[in-house]
Amino acid sequence: MTSWRKCTWSMLLAVVALPPLWAQSLPSQVQKIIGPEPATSAAAVDSLGRETPSGTLYGFLQAAQAGNFTSAARYLQFRPSVREVDREQIASQLKAVVDRAFVGSLKGISTAADGTPQSGVPADRQRIGLLEAGDAQVDLDLVRVTDASAGKIWLFSAETLAAVPDIYDQLQARQIEKNLPATLVSHSFGGTPLWQWLAMTLAIPLAALAGWLLMRALWVPLQMWRRLRHKPQLTRHNGISGPLWLMLAVIAHSVAIRYLQLPLLPRHYYFRVSSVVFIIAFTWLVLKIVDQGMRQIRERALAYGRTGTGSLVVLGQRIHKAGILIVSGLTILAALGFNLTTVLAGLGIGGIAIAFAAQKTLENLFGGVSLLGDEVIRVGDVCKIGDRVGTVEDISLRSTRIRTTERSELSIPNGSLATMNLENLSRRDKLLWAPVISLRYETAPDQLRYVLAEIRRMLYGHPKVDVSSARVRFAELATSSLNIEIFSYLLTTDQGEFTAIREDLLLRILEIVDKAGAGFARPATTMYIAKDSGLDQEKAGAALETVKQWRDEKKLPFPDHSPADVSALRGSISYPPPGSAMSDNQRK
Predict the structure, then answer these.
(1) Which SS3 state, helix, strand or coil, does residue 587 take?
(2) pLDDT higher than threshold 60 for residue 563
């Protein structure tokens, strides 16, 4: 037998064993839970606890259950015509009538000294429920009277007591008791006859079997539906079979107990304990469903590469489970009769205090949730935060750790990170390349046109340059140079490949400038004394001749090359260049 089944059997045994024990051996504890609090004023103290409707009801039931009908009669309001010798008999009859003919719930019995206002009921009365037997029906009322020694107390009303003998006469003796041994009927334990103890014990395996059969009956339509979808295995539903079986078993056992007609007080305690077991089973079922649902969502998120969502699902799963357990605990306390007003008020005040004390922690927590939910960054992304660049190594609920380019570890609180300007370099679809080329002032205009045209031709033909964004313009007559501005995007997202492409482009620009017979300007702040050989007149003449030929053929590529030329040039340059090690490897 598995551990959860052992736990389930223990809970079911507790359902039967605990209520009578509470009723017999723990009257003071019960009184603390469901009865009135002791009065603080000495003048208002009643030794029988009759200051509240709850105290009167439970005090009478406990005294009658113990067989002390003399004391039980002190909870009743008798008319002057009732003789002393008949009062104990009426108390005994009232106990029998309440046990067998009571209709209502003991959960709403007032614990206030003044009672609870009820519609259609006078202020000095409290209606607990009804007494029904055959055609007879009477309200079970309490009335508030003034006692010379105890002050204002609550008693069972004389009108209710007047109808008790008639209802008692109409109660039919249980047929099953006539056929049982007298020992099982006459002897009792904890206010419950032995035959009812035996019946409750025998009902445990029967309820367990009934719960299992009901669970299998619920599985049948689900199995048929999954088979129609070609998914006959119920692997994900097997995890909820344990709590579902326990819930159904508790329901089946509770139904059986209703037919046994336990005495009112043990019955009340029984249903309180069974409610606790049911809440535990229901909480167990909800936790299983949350686990399975969140697991499916996380697996689906990870399958689509949404690691941030996966981490957020884990956090949500833990928060949901904590909330479910808290609600379950409060529900159990309410089922046991505790007043939750003070508890909820304490939780509210404590929550506010914790919120103020953990303000920064909560800020970081919500910042982490925001980062994971929006997936601004992921583990492995290269980011620029302020003037620091690094790779994200971990995103926790408090902080994010980044490995910088200097190989140091940078830890940033999530609350601060959520408000910072953050660049995710890994999300770039291409990289910008925008150098400025400075030529000497001796460069002739047509030489400059030649350089511009050839650089454009080179960019348009290079397979790693985004042609739609490429532009080359003579931008500025600087102090000591003629500046050419190049703007283009390189078709790569890898930084290492970017540097290689950039190197290739710069080398080609060097060749173009050299072929034009021009030269690069030196900084104006640099002073040097050298024999200047001047410009290469032969190359300069060739560049000038080429530009003259473009003019004569009306093909001067300014302000830009024609769309037909751009289309023809696209991809015409070999990259990597011929003769490089990479191009040789690619050919092999």
Answers:
(1) helix
(2) yes
Q: With beta carbons less than 8 A apart as the criterion, state whether 360 and 397 touch.
A: no
Residues 47 and 168 in one domain: yes
Q: What residues contact residue 81 under an 8 Å CB cut-off, 6+ apart?
A: none
Please report, for the domain that includes residue 373, its CATH number: 2.30.30.60
Residue owning tokens 């790693």: 464
**pTM (2 d.p.):** 0.48
Per DSSP (E only), the strands in 431-547 are: 431-433, 436-439, 471-477, 482-490
| Amino acid letter, 439 | L
Q: What is the pLDDT of residue 37?
A: 44
d(CA 576, CA 503): 11
**210, 321: one domain:** yes
pLDDT digit string (tens) for 183-220? Answer: 666 666 766 777 777 777 888 888 888 888 887 787 77
Q: Which of 372, 394, 427 is the last residue of a domain?
A: 427
Residue 183 lies in a domain: no
Is residue 566's pLDDT more than 50? Answer: yes
User: What is the C-alpha separation between 115 and 73, in angstroms, rounded?
Assistant: 21
Contacts of 511 (CB under 8 A, 6+ apart): none
Provide the 8-state DSSP code for 112: S
